[in-house]
Hints:
Elements: H1 2-7, E1 12-17, H2 27-32, H3 60-65, E2 70-75, H4 87-91, H5 102-115, H6 132-138, E3 142-145, H7 146-154, H8 156-161, E4 166-173, H9 182-192, E5 197-204, H10 208-213, E6 218-221, H11 222-226, H12 228-233, H13 235-250
Parallel strand pairs: 1-2, 2-3, 4-5, 5-6
Amino acid sequence: xxxxxxxxxxxxxxxxxxxxxxxxxxxxxxxxxxxxxxxxxxxxxxxxxxxxxxxxxxxxxxxxxxxxxxxxxxxxxxxxxxxxxxxxxxxxxxxxxxxxxxxxxxxxxxxxxxxxxxxxxxxxxxxxxxxxxxxxxxxxxxxxxxxxxxxxxxxxxxxxxxxxxxxxxxxxxxxxxxxxxxxxxxxxxxxxxxxxxxxxxxxxxxxxxxxxxxxxxxxxxxxxxxxxxxxxxxxxxxxxxxxxxxxxxxxx
Length: 252
């Protein structure tokens, strides 16, 4: 998509990062934009196992292709690529990655970092979207808070001020929700407008105290209402049922 936008004449490309199903450090993106070692770089962390420690990935062609383009990485998190706060260990579980697989995948991302630029792996936002932030930063992207960009475009502050109740949502409402994610940004806007804010989430993994610390008055779980199987199998109807219940409670 980035390449298609550039080929169509775009001179400013904003890539929104968050909620990806990938965890490959942006290897597929780098390969698609022309990075060398394309045989070793493909979407999916499994392909990184073919990278060797004595062969660096040449980013020259990819950088040249984007040379006249302002590339913006709009991130919802500030995590680095690797380690305990990295893409794999913090977000891998949300994507269904077993705990025993995480050290393996983190090691593969370490191999990619060593073959490109290890220092960039430590930059805030490199771990966004399964490490796609890392790839964009390698290509010269400027990191900007995605929540702020969207909030400004939508006039969120004004909309919160005009509302009686502010609702937002997230797949998993947990300890990562305070790391610059949408829920946190919406809760801040609601607080500035002195409006209550509630969260509708697929799963709620924090208690009432942590919820309030995030600026959220109450968080509701779809899974708790209908069960995890129904929540995954009939998401639209499950969310509608929860929304109806929440609306009745807050309309009293």
